[in-house]
Amino acid sequence: MEKIVEYTKGELTIVWRPGLCQHAGVCVKMLPLVYNPKERPWVKPDNATVEELIAQISNCPSGALSYRIDEK
Ligand code: SF4
Fold first, then answer.
1. Tens digits of per-residue pLDDT, 6-60?
2. Which of 72, 4, 71 is closest to 43 using CA atoms?
3. Model confidence at 71, in pLDDT bands (50, 70, 90)?
């Protein structure tokens, strides 16, 4: 079964599919305070705004990163 990891920041949920990740490092270059593969968890969504996170996720070349907004 495909592994899916989720990271939440308020209403925003970042969905990461490691099986799709090309390790191109675009996320790390764009938001180094959020994405650090050397740390656990490697995604720290509290270190950027929701707008910054969504803009970055749109630039993930493989589709490994996606997001959803959970309505309250
Ligand atoms: S930008 Fe996407 S494909 Fe590249 S390392 Fe990050 S999650 Fe993986």
1. 999 999 999 999 999 999 999 999 999 999 999 999 999 999 999 999 999 999 9
2. 4
3. confident
Task: Give residue 23's pLDDT.
Answer: 93
**Architecture of the domain delimited by 5-69:** 2-Layer Sandwich (3.30)
Q: 53 CA to middle of ligand 1, Å?
A: 13
Ligand 1: atom nearest CA of 37 is: 5
CA of 16 to the centre of ligand 1 (A): 9
**What residue spans define the domains of the chain?**
5-69
- 20 Cα nearest atom in ligand 1: 3
Rounded to the nearest angstrom, the gap between the alpha carbon of residue 48 and the centroid of all alpha carbons in its chain is: 11
Q: What is the DSSP letter of 47?
A: G
